[in-house]
Specification:
Number of strands: 14
Radius of gyration: 14 Å
Largest sheet: 4 strands, antiparallel
Order of helices and strands: EEEEEEEEEHEEEEE
Length: 152
């Protein structure tokens, strides 16, 4: 830990803090992602301060975000969003778009299985698995190919 940030590969993740009107911000070198009560996630350029893309991520509040890069040679951006609707969504952003400011995020999987809001998310070190925790009292392990592979 350094100044409240945990270094993971070349991306810095902020500790999970909830702000009533701002959602859960996650910081990276040139990109800030914010989550909102209206179900959206905004990708902000830290150099210009402009929203470069707004994602309609969930039907209700977005409660958790996890940001990283794919483990394969592409090094594309990888984002998990967790919503009060009980779903986890996996998004990708081509590495070139990520380097150009963070626009270009596209939905690749909707992961269903929780029966209440998803409150926490984490990516595995390998970036091949995602973990989610929910108000339904369960934690789930997901293959980022779109399959649930475990639950507790």
């Amino acid at each position: 830990m350094h100044n409240g940030f945990e270094e993971v590969d070349d991306v810095k993740l902020a500790g999970a803090q909830y702000f009533e009107n701002l959602g859960m911000p996650i910081h990276a070198v040139e990109l800030l992602l914010s989550a909102a009560q209206d179900g959206s996630v905004c990708a902000w350029s830290t150099s210009t301060g402009q929203c470069v893309q707004r994602l309609h991520a969930h039907d209700h509040w977005v409660m958790a975000l996890a940001l990283g890069r794919r483990a394969d040679a592409s090094r594309d951006g990888l984002l998990l969003s967790g919503g009060y609707d009980g779903t986890v969504r996996a998004w990708v952003c081509p590495a070139d778009d990520l380097a150009a400011g963070g626009g270009g995020w596209a939905l690749c999987h909707t992961l269903e299985g929780h029966t209440d809001g998803v409150m926490s998310l984490e990516l595995s070190r390998s970036r091949r698995l995602g973990f989610s925790g929910s108000n339904d009292g369960t934690a789930r392990l997901w293959s980022l190919k779109g399959e649930m592979v475990g639950r507790a």
